[in-house]
Structures are given as C-alpha cells and as structure tokens.
Fold this protein.
Amino acid sequence: MTSRERILAALNHQDPDRVPIDLSGHRSSGIAAMAYARLREHLGLPKKPIRVYDPVQQLAIVDEDVLQLFKVDTIELGRAFALEDKYWAEWVLPDGTPCLMPAWAKPDRLDSEWVLRSSSTGKVIARMPEGVWYFEQANFPFLEREDLDRLEAEFAECMWSGIASPPGPMVSGADGGAVLAEGARKLRQQTDRAIIGLFGGNLLEFGQWFYRNDNFFMLLAGEPERAHRFLDKLTAIHLRNLDRFLTAVGAQIDIILFGDDLGMQSGPQVSPAMYREYFQPCERAMWQMVKERAPHLKIQLHCCGGVRELLPGLIDAGLDAINPVQITCRGMEAAGLKRDFGSRLTFWGGGCDTRDMLIKGTPAQISEHVRRQVEIWRPGGGFVFQQVHNILADVPPANVVAMYDTVMRA
C-alpha cells in the first residue's frame, strides 16, 4: 500500500497493511521546535535550520528524513508553500536554539516579553512572557463591544485566527485562489502521502476567542437569540471561505480538517442539548457542502477534551474522523470508544498519552503503553496513530523514538 492508500483504508474502516502514522500532518499532531531540535541531534541526523511554521504553538516543520525514518503517511497542505528563504526570518527559541519564523509573523520584543501583532492594526494580540514556551491570547475583539458587521475584519485581531501558518499571506489577494490551487496541484504530484487540508471553521472556539470564555458561556446560556445571530453570521463567513477553499484544493487533498475544542478534562464544555441547538446545524451546513462539492474527501475534526456524549451528534452531522482522542479525559477510554463508535468514526489519535506517559515515562513504559493502545484501536481499521496532541518542548527524544519504534513494529 502507498501511504495514501493506507490512510484511506483506515478511514474506510478497512484493515491496512500496517498501522497508519501521522506526525505533523496537522497542527495538533506535531512536535515543538525545541523538542524537534533535540530529536534530530539524538537521531544523529545532519543539522538543518529549524523552521517554526506555527508561531503560537512553536511547532517545527518535520523534515523529510524524519518523516521517512518514522514511516509517516501524512502531509499537511501548507508544506507546499513558503519553500524559499525570503519567507523566513531568524529568531531564537526560549531555550536559545536558533530557528526561522514565518517572516509575516515574527515576534517582537516588548519590555520583558515577546509579542505577536495584528497584521492589520499592529495591535498586540498574543504575548509570551519571560520563561514561557508558548504564546497566549492577549486580545478579545468583542470583549467590550460587539460589532457583528466587523466580525470578519476582526479575525486579524485575534491570535488564533490572525496568526497564519504557511501559506499565510501568500494566498491572499485577487490571485490567492490560483496560488493555493497551484501549490496543492504540485504537492499532489510530488507525494503519495495523504494530504490534509486545514480549513478550521471553528464555532464554539470563535465565540470564546472573541468574547472570552466566561462571556460566551453566559451568552449561550442567557441570550440565545444573540448567540444565534453571532453563530449564523460566523457560519455564513465560514461557508464563503469553504466554497473558495474547495474550489482551489478540493480535488487535490484527501482529508479536510475542521476544528473546535468542545471538551474539557471532565467532559464536554456544553451539554448535548446545547450542542444540538447551537453548533450541530452549523457543522452540518459546512460538512454537507464538503460532501456535495468533494464527495471523496473525509471530514476530520480537531476536538480536544472529553466529548464522548457529543460523538453521536457529531457523527450525525457528517463527521468521519476525530483527533486527538484525549484518552485521559473522562469517558475517553480507548476500549469503550472503539466498542461504541468504532464502526462509524475513525479515531485519529489516542495512540500515546502526552500528559503523563510521553513526558514522564521511561522508553520501556512508553513502548508497553503504545502497544496496548494500538492493540485496542487497530482491529477493523478506523484508526490512525498519533500521540494525543503535539509532542511538547520538554519531551525526551528517547521517548519519542520509543513511541514510533513501537508503532512501526505493531
């Protein structure tokens, strides 16, 4: 099987020839740049510039030699862009490691912290204080005043929607669609890995990013008509952007990735009833567009936390796969999820706990943990291996190697 065939077999609930593997196919299956630099050194690989494609999470582009070494079956559409040096600027990671940042999102120093600014207004929208490894949101556009007429314009004023990974501004402007389409076409010709197109389409999270978590929860609970107006306006924007995205790349990608963190450690952030009222109709509208326009595409949702109670509604709305499958959350045990939903949903993740095991365990403990997880998830397809979210900056490289060695032997 080719990598693409292997991934698609798993998504179609067929047994592939081996366990499919994702590393850095999307922005929640990657590796922090500081950890990646140590991993390359540990593996004895040649020194290469560390390119940080996601400034907020400080995720590294994983080079081809590592992808081949770990038999990775996926690639993110963004790897087709920003291939020339002019798109990168020198920076230094918090541990002193030199790196390259996207030139359009290079952090600025402000007093004792690093900041990221809006490309539109120059306002500080993210900050990283001294001693911290990642950026945190610093501006909530609707915190003091809601203006739905400016909703799309305010995307640039929010960290999560305003700091772009490649292709970033390369696909803005009148010819942006053509540039995006050409990059996707070239990538398709160059790889037999399954191509993941990151779209987004976040709903609950956009409310939290714009109003702040507490205020948006109050809006959902206390002012339903106002909440619906916001979500209707947001979904209309998403649908217009989705139409353009599918026109440009729908024929060239294999999986389209949406995002919305609906869960917490203790369970869903919203009740199943609130999910069905506010969010399922919006998801259904977007996912139906995908099914109609590009029926070959598999729909994947990045959704952190404990979301077992929401899975029937997500599946009913049209979901094919979910990541990162946060197995340490309430209700997210692998055996129960596989038993109850394994014939209807692909679990893209849950292969190795990152909260405790990957960071604190020994290589032997990690190997046994991964072996058990794969043994549960693998039968009948419907499983793509990735660790639970990104490999964080302080994970020992020997533990990363133990994780992938175990999967490749499975």
In short: Residues 3-92+168-409 form a domain with the TIM Barrel fold (CATH 3.20.20.210). The first strand starts at residue 52 and ends at 54. The radius of gyration is 20 Å.
